[in-house]
Every structure is written in C-alpha cells, then in structure tokens.
Amino acid sequence: MNPATVHALPQDAARSGVPHTIERLWQWADAGWLRRMDAAFAQWVAAADPHCHASLPLVVAILSALEGRGHSCVALPGLQAQLAALLDWPIDQQAQAALAWLKLQLPVHADGWQAVLRSPVIETATAAPPPAGHVDVAAAPMVLVSSAVHGPARLYLRRYYQFEQSTAQGLLGRVHGAALQAPATTACLPLPAADGAPEVDTARIAQILAQLFPVDAASADQAAAAPNWQKIACALALRQRLGVITGGPGTGKTYTAARLMAAALALAGHRADLRIRLAAPTGKAAARLSESLQLALQELPAAILADQALHQALLRIPAARTLHSLLGASPGTRALRHNAANPLALDWLIVDEASMVDLEMMANLLQALPPHAHLVLLGDKDQLDSVEAGAVLGDVCEGAQQGHYSAATMDYLERSCGERLPSEYGYQGAGAAQAAPALSQAIAMLRVSRRFGGMIGQLALAVQTNDAQRMGALMAQLQQQSSAQRAVFWKEPATAQDAQALAWGADGPHAASGYAELARHLQAMPAWPAAYQRPSTSAPDIEPAWQARHAHWVQQLLDALAHFRILCATRQGPWGVEGMNDLVIQSLREYGLPVKSQGWFAGRVVMVTRNDAALGIFNGDVGIALPAAHNRQQLRVYFPQASTAQPAPGAAAAEAEQTMRSIAVSRLQHAQTAFAMTVHKSQGSEFAHVMLCLPAYESPLLTRELLYTGLTRAKKHFSYVSPRVGAWQQAMGQSTLRTSGLVDLLYGTARS
Ligand SMILES: Nc1ncnc2c1ncn2[C@@H]1O[C@H](COP(=O)(O)OP(=O)(O)OP(=O)(O)O)[C@@H](O)[C@H]1O
Known about the structure:
The chain is an alpha/beta fold. It has 29 helices and 22 strands. Adenosine-5'-triphosphate (ATP) binds near residues 249, 250 and 255.
C-alpha cells in the first residue's frame, strides 16, 4: 500500500470515498493482482480530478491493467460480464471477493457509464460537447469513444487511441490510394485515378504472373478446380500499395513473397534502384525470412531465373532486418529515427510474421512509410497475437476466409490471374447499397499447406475451427496407431514423471528426441588442449584442428537444441516455463552433469530477452552456454548460424571466435534459461519435436490460438501433457479475447 499518497488526496475527493478506493487498489497491487503502475495511474487521475466519480479510479486501473494484458482499450458495454475473464485474477477466495466487489462498482447501462466517465481527464471522441469542467482536451490522458445510439462504447489510454487511429488511416490510405506522390525512383506504382481507385497495367501484370505461376499439364486440372491463391495474392498486392498475405504454416507465404518481389521488379523494368526491403518483428524471424526467401528464389521458374538482370536484381535485395532496427529505434527511448517527417528510403517493404507486430509498432511503421511505398504483410492470422497490446493482423484479416471481394476486384483478378473466383468469395454484404470493404480488396488467404498433411496438420485444423467432433475422431485414430506410427503423443492427466520422461526422450513414440540427446553430447565434451585450459594473458591463436573439433561439438549441441523444445502456456508453476526448466535441470543432474539451479553452467540453454544491437543479438535468440575453445574456463553462449547474433564490432580476437557465433556470458545481461519457453516466445520458430504443457488450473489465457501456435511449431512430432483432464478441450473452446476498436475503424463493424 502507499498510504502517504492516499493522505495527499484533495479533501472533496475524500468526501466521495475515493481514498478508500485508492487504498484498495494499492492492496490489490500488493497482492499482485494489479501492477503498481495501474494503482499509481488511478491515483493520479483521482488527484487530477478532485470531483471524480468514486468508480472512476477503478475503471482507470482496469484500463491500465488491461493495456498490460494486450488490450488496446476497454469495451464498456458488457465489461461487468467479461471482467473475470479479462483480469484473470487468482481463484482464491480473497481475490474472487475483491473481483465481486469490483464488478458491483461498475455501471451496467449507458447513463451510469456517462456519469462515471464525466471527467476532464477523459476526452470524448465524438462531435458531442465536451463534459463540464473540461479544461484541456488535448492533454486528456484518456479518450472515450461514444456512439450516438448506444452511448459510451470504448475507453482508451490516449496513446492507444492514437495508435489505432493512425494504423487504420495508414492501412486504408494505402488501399484507397490517398495522398500518393511517387518519387522519381518508383515505376511500378499504381497511381490513383481521379475517383481514388487504383489504376494498374493489368495486361502487363497478367503477363508477368503467367510467367511466375506457369501451369504445367500435370496440374492443369487441379488448377482449373481450385483458385490459385498465391497468384491472387500477388495480383492484389501489385494492384495497390498494400497487400496482406495470410495463411497457416507451409501455405507458401514466403514462396509467394519471392514471386511478388520478382513481379515488382519485372513491372519496374528490373530497375536497379527499386528499393525492396525485408523486415520482421524479431531478429530470429528476420533471419528466417532471409533464409527461406533465398530458398524460394531458387525455386523461381526457369524462365525467370534465366533473365539475368532480374535474377541479379533479386539477389541484390538486402537481408531482412528487425522492424526496430529498420525504423531506427535506440535503446531506452520510444523515439524512432524514421517517422512521417523522415520516412524510410524504400519502395517496397515485405514484413514477415506480421501477427507478432503490435499496435504501436504498426502505427509507427505506417507513419514512417513513404506514401508511394508498397507494404506487404505476411503472417498467420490464427496465431497468437502480439505480446504487446493489439491484435493487428487478426483485426486486419477479419473476413479473410470469405474474401469479400468487390465485383471490380473479381473482374481484375479474372483479367490478371486468368481465373474467375467462385461467387462465394464475392462480397455478400447488405445489397448494392453497401460497398465491399476496401481493405478486403488487399487481402488474400493461402489455404493449402504444403508442410502439414498428417496428424499434426489435422489437429491444427480441428483446433483452428474448434471442431470437437473432428478432434474426437482424431483421438480415436490415435488410439489405433502403433506407437511407432504416431506423430502425436497425448497424455491427460499427466504426472510430473510423465513430463520428465517425455522431456528426456525416454518415453513417447519418438523416444530419443528429448533433452537426453543434448545431455549425451554434453557428456562427450572433448578434452581441451593444455594451452586452452585456463585464461591466457594474450589472446591465443587457436590451433585449427582443435578449433574444428570444438566447432563440431558445439554444432552437435546446437543441432540437438534445434530438434526439441518444451513449450508452456504459462511462465510460473510446475507446468509452466519455470517448473519445466527445473525438471530438465534435475534430469541433467541425475544424468551426472554438473548443472546448477541458478546462474551459468555448461549446457545451460538461454533465450535473449532484450535486443542488444551492439552485441548483435535480439530478443528471442536462443543459444547454449559452453566452454570457449580458447579458454576452458570461460563460458560463451553459442547461437545457431541462422541466428542474427553477430560478433560485436571491435570485439577482441579471442572474443569473437572466428567460426561460431558466440558471446561471453559476462556480456549477456538479459537472458533467461530456456529449456522450456512460452508458446508466445516460440512464434516464428519450428522444431522437429514440440512438447506442449498446459497447467493444472483453468485460465482464459488457455485458448485455441495458443494450442494452434504450439501445435504448428512442430514439424514432425508433437507431444502434449497436462495434469488436468479436459485442459485441451477447454482451451480449444476459448478464443483469445483482445479488446480493440480497429475492426470497427477498418470495417465499420463492432467487435470486442
Ligand atoms: N505453389 C507451390 N508449388 C510448389 N511448392 C510450393 C508452393 N508453395 C509453397 N511451396 C513449398 O512449400 C514449402 C512451404 O512454403 P513457404 O516456406 O513459402 O511457406 P510459409 O507459409 O512461408 O511457411 P512458414 O511461414 O510456416 O514458414 C516450401 O518448401 C515451398 O517451396
């Protein structure tokens, strides 16, 4: 509690019972149900508005707490009913009693909300006159969006209101062709016609797409039967300055992006100065995008690869960067070097893993894009939302399944792709009076996975569609399979021993694909030559044969690490990241390895938790601590080659072992043990075998998006454990609840 500040409240606020409310909020923060900043913000509001309604600080604390849980606003109608799910307080008696009291303080009807929210600290975003006492609208820290018919609808922290507004404007502006000014370097850009509709050279696009997506005789029948969504995605992205390509794992998003880049270059006449850039929200995702694009470029049709100028132009496209580094973020500040006043110098930007891009980043990105530039978002709309507030890709892709294409778009697709889409993909809205949503004309959903056919793919589909019947049939099928046939292992209820056996690779159909493999390699540590047993005063030259042997050993460990990962729904508890990490460490100890519960040890798997541009490492990079080749006593964290980890500029020779990407543990300030990681953190990664753990308790955070994301990280084998019977079923029945007004802004339909 923070009594000193409670006493500092103004007198008339005290009369309205506000100090008791603030006192309660601090008690809830002390109990860990709220963040201290939530209570502090509510207290600030109570001090700034001495006449505030007694419930206002409660609403403010809820708003702040929900922002911390990824919501961009609070939807006021129905808040009472959803509060328990949104706040997810512990199920103990005390917390539940507090929650019940809190619910009673919240209004149910529009009039009640109006009374609570009438305050100079809240600006109403309608044409309605500002509330009495409203002194400084521009500085009001909160914004209330009110509908003329239904009254108060959503309450925002001002920043998030602005992010939503500018994201919606930025996206819609790129679709409508607003304020377009093409600099001299661009050639293939659709210039807006007088009515705002984009004008493109459809015949030329059709010619290029026909080359990029040749129909061979063998697949001609199939091609005639099913729309080629990859080709459609390219056609849509070439038509205007926004393209959104969504699809599950292996549906060919990168494959399509490679063809889109080739098409953009071909349309521009292969111009060397067409600046195509690639980015992703994390360093790991950026590295993966570059890698898979390289492969996808090699798969381009022979006729395209034979065009030397085009091929060279494609090869010149720089490697993908993180959005942070692209926008010029600096540590410790939210300010970015690139913004509307200093836009990015590019003509096309392809952003992968767009589901991980939060609202603030998307708003910043759209601000920093030059008006003429094309933005292409690639991502899986069904994955978990971004860690930070917002559900941008999910909101943008509302209706992607149905298409919602206008007659003009259907016509354009017929002319550019040579195929007539079935009428079910045409907009079926409220008759001719209502136009098809503009944003839908930029979105394509890829529907055929080339990677997932078997049990994992079928499970993912059952989860995605919340199809309990299909799920039941798959479970029955699983029972009939011999353990050697199974790609999926299922244990509910599971014990800690089950989890340990599975994590070790001693159980399950795919025994030997757990951490035992890592342990075996750790135990087979090579003997260090005497010269490198202890620190040397000068940086020693490393003997090439020893260097190669050490590198081979490290690589074996990195390969074992890439093979298997434990994913948890939660951080805490025995079935969360912490419990599972302890379990693996215990197994390593029982195996005879000198591991520690805390701190560094050889074999500790860690995840970087903060970008460090100086060290060249990024949030989410995973590596393993091992003795350095040049000094047996120095532990370094070795990262896979695909990681974005780079030797720090100016690092000493011994610091930057030539062949491996590694960093001395003493330099790695922000890292945590990662034998197990959260499903959230695993986004953008894949492993041959994934073991997913759900906790013993119920939580609204256990959702089908979480199951889907966990499942689709597994390439070959998937194991699932939970101590609670029905945990999977319950998670499958729940969808992520992210309150946002973006769908409303983009599509004009309410959503919360
Ligand atoms: N039209 C196609 N014809 C043949 N192979 C294809 C086609 N589309 C995709 N593929 C192949 O399918 C695999 C998956 O494609 P890709 O990596 O582009 O999918 P993705 O959606 O980007 O996957 P993820 O995001 O899960 O990594 C690749 O090996 C790619 O070559």
